[in-house]
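I am writing to request your help with a piece of structural work I have in hand. A protein sequence and the structure tokens that stand for its backbone fold form the material at issue. Please examine both parts with care and let me know of anything in them that strikes you as inconsistent. The record follows directly beneath this note.
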Amino acid sequence: MGEQERLEARERAILALERRGFAGPGAKERAIREELGLAPVRYYQLLNALLDDPRALAFDPVTVNRLRRVRDTRRSER
């Protein structure tokens, strides 16, 4: 991949956090704040944009495709 096609460290960290499992309510939000220094609302905005980014799909297709399916299911339930 060329330099322009690579994800930034924060984008890679967001995808890495999504690969992890979290026990109990609030654990994920706490990790978002402590590890990434982001408010959960901002985190989910960035994550949603990443799901439409071809660089993210190339970097971690399993995670991105899983999250896209979850997002599509939620949208269709509305």
Q: What stands out?
A: The CA atoms of residues 51 and 67 lie 7 Å apart.
